[in-house]
Amino acid sequence: MTEVTIDHTHPLYVGPSDTPGSIVIPVKLTGSENYSLWSRSMGIALLGKKKLWLVTGKRKKDAYKDDLLEQWETCNAIVLSWIMNNELWHEYDVLVPFASSGCPKSKDQVEQLHQQRVMQFLSGLNDSYDQARRQILMKTTAPTLDQTYAMIVQDESQQTFRVNVVTDKTDPIAMQVGRGQ
Questions:
Q1: Burial of 30 (0-12, 13-18, 19+ CB in 10 A)
Q2: Are 133 and 120 a contacting pair, CB within 8 Å?
Q3: pLDDT per residue as tens, the chain (181 positions)
Q4: Is 0.70 topped by the overall pTM?
């Protein structure tokens, strides 16, 4: 089977930050009381990542044959993991509750929990984000999960921009060589 090249506009494209360990929204599903907010947030995040069609069923698995079927499976698995990861943190909070008395020790526990989630998010990123990961970890003030995610999205945008700029420009020296100079 030959490998199919998929560009960033294709619905089955998986970007560098599209990893199974990623948390795509900060809203935790706690049940029917916040399902509407969670659902809307998840829908917006999936739309932004061009993967909402997997949840709505707009493009069915049957539409992708042979070489693209495996890529469809990959995209589906990633979206499922995003949804499950978001719920799993809520389940963890239920299983391992922390005191919310407002005392300094309680605040420290909450801060530690948030930092563990930032570390989990960063460890789920692929190798193309090593530099961004190092910069985030070197910060003197630890960023929140939302801030971390925003930094990674910004880095991904810059990576995509750099690739587009490099491929759109012709090297003037190469042109001179082509003329025999």
A1: middle
A2: no
A3: 556 678 888 888 888 888 887 788 888 777 677 778 888 888 899 998 898 888 887 877 878 877 788 888 888 888 888 887 777 555 556 655 655 667 777 778 778 877 877 887 777 676 777 888 899 999 888 888 778 878 887 887 787 666 666 555 555 555 555 555 4
A4: no
